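Notes, Module 5: Reading structure tokens.

Key idea: the token line is not a picture. It is a compressed description, and you learn to read it the same way you learned to read a sequence, by spotting repeated patterns. We will look at two proteins. The first is printed below with its tokens.
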Amino acid sequence: MRRIFFPVLLIVSVVAFSGAFEVVDDSFLALKEFLDQPDSGAFLSLLERAEGLLIVPKYFKIGWVIGGQYGQGILLRRDPETGTWYGPLFIKIYGLSVGAQIGFQTISLIAVIMRNVDTFAQGNITLGGSLSVAAGPLGRRLGADYNLDASVYSYSIARGFYAGFSLEGAKIDFDRELTREYFNVFSVYPLEILTKPLKGRAEKIADFLNERLK
């Protein structure tokens, strides 16, 4: 039993003290790094049609047959008709995996949410279970015949080494404490947060994305 939980406990001990504003700033830097890649055009094409964006700037994975994953990030909702962004709702993503895996890796995880973005506000959802997930397409543009059949398309920028990486089975829940810290409130209503235009330091993310989507 200790072998099963040790990877997750080790990762949580590393990232559990990230503050809300640090997560927002790191999310902006991760997004900027990703969009500086020459083949991110397809990502922007997806984003034009998307209902939301999930950014986890530091997603830690560690494993030796039994693997653990943990990260904190933000969820932004987008109105495809007006281009208005809402949130941010702070989330945590975690999971266990068993199989051919060895090593330690830190990645920046970015996921485009095409539909059912409000599902994330309910908490305790599973990627690949309650929401279908697929690797995001790469390239300077999205092909006209590309079949958008998944609810979520994920991208990552990897650092370090890890074998057997997959988002299938990862669980996502909203992070009540970080959301309270950012909005300086005690009561947190996730669905309500996703109806409020972005405020504070997260606004720079919206400005940056809207500029790239022009």
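Here is the second protein, with the sequence above and the tokens below, as before.
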Amino acid sequence: MELSRRIRTLNEGGSDGWELFYRARALKAAGQPVTELTVGEHDVPTHPEILAAMQSAAAAGHTGYAMVPGVDALRDAVAERVAARTGVPTGRENVLITPGGQAGLFAAHMALCDPGDRALYLDPYYATYPGTIRAAGAEAVRVETRAEDGFQPQAEAVAEKAAGARSILVNTPNNPTGAVYRRETLEGLARVAEAHDLWVVSDEVYDTQVWEGAHVSPCALPGMAARTLVVGSMSKSHAMTGSRLGWIVGPEEAVARLIDLATVTTYGVPGYIQDAGIFALSRPDLEEAVAAPFRRRRALARDILARQQAVGLVPAEGAMYVMLDIRRTGLSGIAFADGLLDAHRIAVMPGESFGRAAAGHVRVAMTVPDDAFTEALETICAFAAARAAEAV
């Protein structure tokens, strides 16, 4: 008896990219002190007022089946938020509430791709992207971005892979690189999408964490709202990672079909969690408080890295990570991360976990208190300097 080819090939029979993370967690479980700078998990919990709203809703009885598309008040709140941020008229009919952004990414590709279709994604990428596309039965097609371009995707590179494709998945602010795609970058991608009749799936879960420039959603560009599905989430903006509350925003017909999919898969999101989301979206100050530590630590990282030569900093324009260029050490990102964990019990993610384009880099999550973050970065720089000296 065999399982389906689809489930057996989610990772193409290879790595899921999380080996270093698993090794660090095993060390912690064994009682070892490990500074974890791996996953995008906040060092502060969900705000007590959001939790109080969730508890109040549950105690009031909103624990039964909720409307599959999402409760009207939350769909309205998301629509208002997206309209305000993009300038695109948006109503509840354009919104499906999903159990987190990851479920939204999967649903979007299920809606856009038939089995065997080609779906593009940009490298470096969040580790789940190619598997998500394969889970929808599509062929995941990698489009490489380059460190020398600040990991800004080039329209020409996308166009080379676009013939016959159905969609392209973009993520700005970007995980893992921290790049915020410039308007001209997105305009170039939009021209390719129009020329090749591509849908755009836009992962915008870090849209409240922009340190330089401005967030531009592809749907805000002329003619693009009709071919863009925006995926959002409260995980990163409101430190609600475990609440699993996200959304897809797109054309009304697409959302209607996505509701059909939700009816036979997730069957909606618990009502008390949605009520907490309604409360949270009514309080912009809460998401500003979540973003503030990352803005501060990004400034710390820039200061520390400016004082040394062994490690390069990829422009950290947004999101809760900094991407470090460690190629001067002569090590791969994997070898560097493994050696750092062995020598100093500091866990960072190898760039290779996020694609070939990030080889020779490591991703550092800014998710520990300032003092611990500063100490860890200084140790990383010293470790890199020693390895670079050995490589000469």
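Summary for the second protein:
- The chain has a mean pLDDT of 96.
- The longest strand covers residues 165-171.
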